[in-house]
Amino acid sequence: MMFDAEKFISVIHDLAHPDKSLCAYLYDLGALASHARNIKSSLPDRVNFFYAIKANSDLPILSALAEHVDGFEASSGGEIQWVRQNFPDVPLIFSGPGKLDTELELAILNNVTVHIESRFELERLLHIARHYQQPAEILLRVNPHFEDLRATSLMMGGKPTQFGISVEHLSDCLKMVRDNSDCLYFQGFHFHLLSHQLDAAQHLRLLSAYIEQAVKWKEEFNLVIDHINVGGGIGVNYKDIDQQFDWCHFSHGLNNLLIGAAKNIPKIRFEMGRYVSAFCGVYVAEVIDIKTSGNGTYVVVKGGTHHFRTPYAQNHSHPFKVIPVSTWKKPYSRPGLRHGKVNIVGQLCTPKDLLAFDEMVGEIRVGDIVLFSHAGAYAWHISHHDFLRHAHPQHIYLPA
């Protein structure tokens, strides 16, 4: 899905007001639904598509996606409650380390499949399942080491981390599952070693390694497996927005991979987040000051990383577009810059409040609007909203 800023321009001009500085998130729900529908339709029949709501759990976002995905993935008790409150029947899975007993209880009582991260977590889930006399569906998240695993900017496995069960503990966990099969319904394995993958060919090789490993364990331990959860991991290229993950190559390659694999391999399940919702959202902020310091020019916008932490979290200069605002009714001058490099910063009392840096602009003035694209995932939802107690941005959802 390629980003189309023009859809937002007229809405932003309508929102701009001479007496009130603008700061908002805008989401195109029609584009989101279309993107999800295209993802789903391009996947082979043996593949399930879940949405990881940690990327963006706003109710309008989830509602737009619900009919185009096979289920949702939650990573906390709060997310489980949020989904069940609004989507009582949607298939739901529960991932992540450090699950509380209360969260495991919530999962069992709400028919949520649990991805087990450690032997101790498995032991606690078993105890809770027996207490409630309610069987628990589980996958074992395993952290294998693959010799040729190519690193990305965010690695959750393939090396010692807090995620997943170490391979040397797998046999013990499977024995516990087998000895308690009346309470623990083993569904398969969960692999999620990396995120921010931009190379479709590399991701196909990784999935092939996942499948091969799962089939080996299936045969070694004489297992019945319903599916393999391969996580998400597909990234968004914020540094070069015209060069995104090649989904067509990937989906075609995945189909060939499954055709060529052993006929007894289980179903495949994805739980994608960033790649699903990032493209549908923008963060917009009005320019409130422009000043120079040494050789640098700083554009201060209403907002910052407390609203939009993505650039700092990803360590990049975020792509943006300047939207000119022609009206100016203030009784003082209007600072501006033509044809120069700027650093775009927010209102926070820290030099880390940096949204874009060393970027060329044709013209920018106080009162103009800066639109940051690709802000529909891990943006507002990972930000420290109440630092300095600034007002929250508006949240506006463009209907389909």
TrEMBL record:
GO biological process: lysine biosynthetic process via diaminopimelate; polyamine biosynthetic process
Coiled-coil residue windows: none
Xref: InterPro entries: Ala_racemase/Decarboxylase_C, De-COase2_N, Orn/DAP/Arg_de-COase, Orn_de-COase, PLP-binding_barrel
Enzyme class: lyase
Sequence ranges assigned to domain Orn/DAP/Arg decarboxylase 2 N-terminal in this UniProt record: 31-278
Pfam families linked to this entry: Orn_Arg_deC_N
GO MF annotation, one: diaminopimelate decarboxylase activity
Gene3D superfamilies per the UniProt record, alphabetical: Alanine racemase, Lyase, Ornithine Decarboxylase, Chain A, domain 1
N6-(pyridoxal phosphate)lysine carried by residues: 54
Keyword Transferase tagged: no
EC annotation from Swiss-Prot or TrEMBL: 4.1.1.20
Keywords: Lyase, Pyridoxal phosphate
Cofactor dependency: pyridoxal 5'-phosphate
Active site: 349
Family annotation (SUPFAM superfamilies): Alanine racemase C-terminal domain-like, PLP-binding barrel
Keyword Secreted (UniProt): no
Listed PANTHER family: DIAMINOPIMELATE DECARBOXYLASE, GROUP IV DECARBOXYLASE
Protein name: Diaminopimelate decarboxylase
Organism from which the protein derives: Nitrosomonas eutropha (strain DSM 101675 / C91 / Nm57)
